[in-house]
Amino acid sequence: MSGWGYALMTVSMVLFWALIILGVIALVRYLARGDRSGEQAAAPQATPEQVLAERFARGEIDEQEYHRRLAVLHDRSRPLLKP
């Protein structure tokens, strides 16, 4: 074999092991990601009151608007208006 044969053999061996290592890393990451998706699906959703409180805390609505909307949320006997 000439010098090119040894060089090609070395490069192909490095590429082979690099592909094997990358495949193992990809497999581990894929399996780890599958475990996290179940935890995210079980997370409770925010109630309307919590969403309203977050908007007030961020400054999207003022105190008067916050209290008005909170009263509407707590007033269950009020009939719904049809659009």
From TrEMBL:
- One short Pfam family name for this protein? SHOCT
Q: Where are the transmembrane segments?
A: 6-28
Which keywords belong to this entry? Answer: Membrane, Transmembrane, Transmembrane helix
SHOCT domain: residues covered: 48-73
InterPro entries (UniProt xref): SHOCT
Q: This protein's superkingdom?
A: Bacteria
> Which protein is depicted?
SHOCT domain-containing protein
Q: Which source organism does the UniProt entry give? A: Pseudonocardia hispaniensis
